Amino acid sequence: MKQLFSGSYNGSVRNHTALEPVVFFLTGIPGLEHVQHWISIPFCSMFVISLLGNCSLLYVIKTDTSLHQPMFFFLSMLASIDVVLSLTTMPKTLGIFWFNAGEIGLVGCLVQMFFLHTFSIMESAVLLAMSFDRYVAICHPLRYHSILTHSLVAKTGLVALMRAVALMLPLPLLLQRLSYCHSLTIAHCYCEHMAVVRL
Q1: How far apart are CA 98 and CA 90, in angstroms?
Q2: Minimal CB count within 10 Å: which of 12, 48, 113, 165?
């Protein structure tokens, strides 16, 4: 919340403190505002292809019981993360490109930032787990199913999620308590962390 101070003098000074919600303005791609309608075509195409590809992968892994193995469970985690990351940034980006809808509230900005960073951290943890899966498959093929059980895969995914949330949860909580005194314009398509901190 942004605190505004206005004082008037009628023989004595009266302080009025009003609370207004902070609204940021996302500009899109700096310097390319005049061609953003054209830039939106490849962005939208990649967004749709990403959603279709990842959702198809999730559907195939869920329906085909022969794919219910650790490697494919990790692939489904990675596909889910990609879907969340796409949905975190692209709808707002396309809204800016198509409708010049660059306004985003403080809470929306912090939520977007939290999901973006949390799932990016989780993605790196899942990639690490996938490399461990390949190591076990190559170096210990006879013990593969006894080492990488379904329970261990689920626990690995849960630990990756908890680690990412624990690392990123303080960020929006601390940023929410700050006051924003400069221009509330962010020269990005999404709420970029350092741009918000500079404000």
Answers
A1: 12
A2: 12
